[in-house]
Amino acid sequence: MRTADSGGADPSQRDAIPRLDFNPPHERVRGLEIVDLAALHERRRRRGSRTDLVHRVDFHTLTLITEGSAEHAVDFVTYPCRPGTLLWIRPGQVQRFVRPGTANGTQLLFTSAFPPHTSSADRLVRQWYGPACRQLGARPEYAVLSTLIGQMRAEYGRPVETVSAEILQLLLATVLLHIDRLPHPDVGGDPHAGGEVYARFRAELERGYATTRRAADYAHRLGYTVKTLTRACVAATGQPVKPVIDARVALEAQRLLAHTDEPVATIGRRLGFPEPTNFGKFFTRHTGVTPGAFRQSHQGGQGASPRTV
């Protein structure tokens, strides 16, 4: 992996948060790398990179922890990692290993284009949202996923001229579909309940949150009414469309305030607020603190999460 200036998940012209693009040192299969987590940390150390730095990736990382312990932060939530922990970090999310610790396991790194487009897994990888962490422990689901990932590793480790990308694609699709039918954590709604309308809206929101916060603009772009978008958002999140839009903008504001040194006014302009005062009012209304106070609370610790689960 290497650092990139920009990526598809960030609508700004330049990403102020370090971004790693998909660039494995030895690409055995286009769009996929399978590596031990400990080996990945060692690779970064050899390159002189700290393993605990905040970064985004422009691809998916799916990690099944099999031994040891660690802590991993994703967008202001710190997750304890232990055997049976499943992490799925999606493109654009901000993450860091708060405490790399002794944890090891298998990490699947794959682009959104890798899973077969003919399967339902294609829908799953194109959704930016979803639980970042599941604690499977010793449940049967852990054994199922461990077996499937083990089959992927065996195929990936074959002599390069005999590795089948199709087998790996189908196995990955099976892994993702098994994950999709795990009990959905109680996080205030079920994204699937909003159906295709909500899925299309979230994709459009990712492209446009820095340019407009008007529900009518999204409805017009997608060919729906505001009432239709609201119905889908309520089904998926329990909230109407406007709070969903504002929450996405507030999340990006938190990321930039916590993880960059950009002036508050610059961050506001990035997110569509020409006047710093309006950005300050918006941020305070949605988070309960001023931009300056939020930034100060996250200085000195790489934006360590205020919440642990």
What is the mean pLDDT? 86
How can the largest sheet be summarized? 7 strands, mixed
Number of strands: 12
Q: What spatial order of strands do you see in the largest sheet?
A: 1-2-4-9-6-7-12
Summarize this, please?
The chain has eleven helices and twelve strands. By secondary structure, the protein is α+β, with helices and mostly antiparallel strands.
Keywords:
single chain, 309 residues, alpha+beta, seven-stranded mixed beta sheet, five-stranded antiparallel beta sheet, 12 strands, disordered N terminus
Task: Describe the protein in words.
Helix content is 41%, strand content 18%. It is an alpha+beta fold and 309 residues long. The strands form 2 sheets. Strands 1-2-4-9-6-7-12 form a 7-stranded mixed sheet, with no helix packed on it. It has a 5-stranded antiparallel sheet with strand order 3-10-5-8-11. A hairpin with a 2-residue loop joins strand 6 and strand 7 (77-81). Helix 5 (195-208) crosses helix 7 and helix 8 crosses helix 11. It starts with a strand and ends with a strand.
Write the layout of secondary structure elements.
Layout (H helix, E strand, L loop, with lengths): L1 E3 L14 E3 L10 E5 H10 L8 E3 L2 E8 L2 E5 L2 E5 L3 E5 L4 E6 L4 E7 L10 H5 L7 E3 L4 H17 L8 H16 L14 H14 L6 H8 L3 H12 L3 H19 L4 H7 L5 H12 L3 H7 L9 E2 L1
Parallel strand pairs: 2-4, 7-12
Antiparallel strand pairs: 1-2, 3-10, 4-9, 5-8, 5-10, 6-7, 6-9, 8-11
Helix pairs in contact: 3-4, 5-6, 5-7, 8-10, 8-11, 9-10
